[in-house]
What we know:
- Helix content is 11%, strand content 48%.
- It has helices spanning 2-15, 25-31, and strands at residues 34-44, 47-48, 52-58, 64-71, 84-93, 99-110, 113-126, 132-145, 152-161, 186-187.
Amino acid sequence: MKEVAILLLVMLAFSGCGGTPTINTQTAQTAAGGIWSAQILGGSGAASGFSFNTEFTVNSDTTLAVTYFQFLTQGTCFPVDGGTQNGTMDLNINGSTGVVTGTLKYTVLASGNTLTLNGLVTGTATTQNANALSDGSVTGTWTVTGGSGCNATGGTFTMCQSTTASPSTGVCTTTTTTPATASQNQSLR
Length: 189
């Protein structure tokens, strides 16, 4: 019986040794923010052309704290500054590969009109940059509802972090990174 107890203590002592580094989930969640560019395709007339730049941080509860927003074109449905913006970004990381996946919901509200984007987030988490999301991009669909001429089932959109956006068009560019490894799957919250 004494030998079993000693064996269990030895196993317990070694279970915490020799593991790979874990990802700091709060740092990664916060680092998912930054400057993002969105290219919106589809719609017609006033209910189209909603491409924009935005800057936000992702709070620990997945909500976005938007600090900057500007449409790239002037339209009749929204002012250039977009009015009020909010949303959520819920991210998870595969600790073995460093691949980040998740969801984004981003909403712009002004003058009785609402633009809603829903998409899937992809990217990588790197230990070289404090476990930050890098090469982040979002693809999905959008809708706009509200006043006359400002209703559309929408179309598609692509949204990416500034490090993966073309400076002239805001369109995501393709880059290749080698993801960092970690010991387990974790949420980026």
